[in-house]
């Protein structure tokens, strides 16, 4: 099939962002080679639990208005939604942090509200930059973040022997990236903000802060809640292995998902079902082609890769990656396509899917605990991830038929 100029432009922008993020992930990979030799599995477990709570909450603090921003076509309203998302996100971040500061007394938890506020500002700014096609700013911010995070992770453990350095460095990296984005969009913020239309905008996109937020919360709890549950049910060592394995697999997966999701939203909005269905298939096959070889490499050689890159204490994490890679591959391919539900305002359907996914993930973990076998839980998790993503894909094909809804 010959692509029209617009479609070529679409893929050109995708690869422009993709390779910018690829550079960031190359730097991140250097960290993967260094940090496991400096930090213990227990330190990674603590980091994994902390960031799980972060990733759960960042899905809801902006009330999904960052997604609504990309669905809106009016430039003035886009700017209004940007303001609204930043203001609401910052306020919610501070409020939801309070219980954590009372429950957890360790000093590193003081970074928790700061990190949430930074994400509340970061997410809508990235969405806005994607709309105006300033993808180079998005890539640069990601590069700055990973460089700072790696540098300070090393500094904290080598200079101050701080085992919580992964968390502090994570906060610093996010702060630097957010300040860079704010600087690039400073012309939008250093003006008088008109809040008169905020109520009308919330009414227009009411599905996003209602069904959308609830759906995102259920999904992110079921995904990021796995790490605290593994620590509770199977111990800190297995939690550390899981955290390390997931972190390595997420590097290439999130690289693709971030780039493709941004451009799928940009190009798939306000087009006919026939054209949307073409976009869905294009996105699906791009994901399959880009991911199949890396997936097979990890599936066959994951254990050996972890042994040679790190050391013998991480062999179990390598074995774990050989299972998890199929789940993360399915998620990476289907995740951008799932934005069809947002485009069509079918967030109630997304909520139902996430509730079912949550139930099956919980069943997988507790089944493993019942049999006192961590690997049984992992096998069930992988099967659930693959089957549910396939079910979502076929549903999307159904609703994008020319005579679909």
Structure description:
It is a single chain. The protein has 17 helices and no strands. Helices cover 83% and strands 0% of the residues. The protein has 405 residues and is mostly helical. The model is unreliable at 1-6 (pLDDT under 50).
Brief rundown of the structure:
The protein has 405 residues and is mainly α.
**End-to-end separation:** 26 Å
The percent range for strand residues is: under 5%
| Count of individual helical segments | 17
Shape: globular
**What is the number of E strands?**
0
As a whole number of angstroms, the C-alpha radius of gyration is 21 Å
Give the ordered list of helices and strands.
HHHHHHHHHHHHHHHHH
Fraction of residues in helix: over 70%
Q: Could you describe the largest sheet, including whether it forms a barrel?
A: none
Q: How confident is the prediction overall: mean pLDDT?
A: 86
- Low-pLDDT ranges: 1-6
User: Which structural class do you get from the secondary structure elements?
Assistant: mainly alpha
Fold blueprint:
Elements: H1 5-38, H2 41-57, H3 65-71, H4 75-103, H5 111-131, H6 135-158, H7 165-184, H8 186-189, H9 198-204, H10 208-224, H11 226-234, H12 236-268, H13 273-309, H14 315-337, H15 340-343, H16 347-370, H17 374-399
Helix pairs in contact: 1-6, 1-12, 2-10, 2-11, 2-12, 3-4, 3-5, 4-5, 5-7, 6-7, 10-16, 11-12, 11-16, 12-13, 12-14, 13-14, 14-17, 16-17
